[in-house]
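User: I'm curious what two different proteins look like when written out as structure tokens. Can you demonstrate?

Assistant: Sure. I'll show them one after the other, since each token string lines up with its own sequence. Here's the first protein:
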Amino acid sequence: MAFKRPDGRKITEMRPAEAKVGVVPNADGSAMFKSGKTIAIAAVYGPKKMHPQHQQNPRTGQLRCEYNMISFSVDDRIRPGRNRRAMEISEVTKWALEPVVDLKDYPNQVVDVHINIIQADAGTRCAGINAAAMALAHAGIPMKNMVSSISIGKLDKTLVVDLTKEEEDFEEGEGPTDIPVSITSDGKITHMQLDGMIEVKQLQESIDMAKEACKEVYKIQKDALKKFIEDKSEGLN
């Protein structure tokens, strides 16, 4: 009997996703990425002089990321402010994006990326990374590639693409396994995490699934950036 997902999607099917660039007018770059009910907004400020001064690097600029879940983003309101999980995901986001960002021409400077999750139904770190990558491109930050992110899950023994919160809470059989993966537009992995247990063979299968799904995410990101440029050009005419 074929495995059935709670929302009826195929095992390789992403939730409906959309993206938009230029959503925060006073930022140097900004973007929104929506995956199902999860919505992330990213705003980029900089390059600007790094403060505090003792953290400056005279050889290159630096990337600084801050992830935050707004208190009303979930049904059960969460305490506002940074907690341990937010600090961890902030660092993970930085690790996922740093390999493609080129700040060597900005010594002693910093690029700040602020990510706010305004609605959450799993996959928030991936949505945040997707929004942040678009926001960096919108800000004109030099980048070698785009980064796209997706979560692969294992529900009991079945691998699925793009978990919902209901699937994250799956408890049957071997329970859930969550594998967020970030991949560049030329297929290189910049970040991968594993929460749960999985055999080596299935881990490779999950990476292959992530690469295919990230191609879809990349197209959504690219189309959003292209639309912004086209709309801006029309506005100038």
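Here's a second, unrelated protein for contrast:
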Amino acid sequence: MAGHRQCDNGLMEINPPCVVALTWTLKDSLGNMLDQLDDPVEFLVGGDDLLPAIETALQGHEAGAVLDLNLEPEAAFGDFDEQLVFLAARHLLPEGIEEGMLLEASALPSSIADGAPTGTILTITEIYPEHVVLDGNHPLAGMALRLHLKVAAVRAAGEDEVARASVGAGFFRLQAGETKR
């Protein structure tokens, strides 16, 4: 694919569009472990799979690179927005709901998440006898993050991956279906 540069050692440099296989350790600003991925997962650089700050940091590197990133909320999952927290009458929600479940706002009665952006995914954060608290913020919103990345592999992106703007990994997406700004 045109546009991909080879390094002197023959390895492909990370430049969009390409696919990177990453492992990582994700911690909050206090060093508490949030997530660890030991087996590489592929992400499209130049698509919707990665946060812009991560894509920028990866560019020009190659397989074997190790990066330590400190991401402030605005470069990660944004600030916590209280307007994305909703109270819903318990009887308006399906039976069998549990804390931590995800619901698509558009699948609920319009009165529940009035004002939620299209495609917002709501997390059930608290359940009371008469009402339920639904949160449309990303679970990591408002948090500064420490990300230790390892690039396991780099390859050219396929035409179908570029057309979809994804290889299917959505860990770093802000919301389902949301694209970068």
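A detail about the second structure: The beta strands are 18-28, 33-45, 66-71, 85-89, 102-104, 121-127, 131-135, 145-156.
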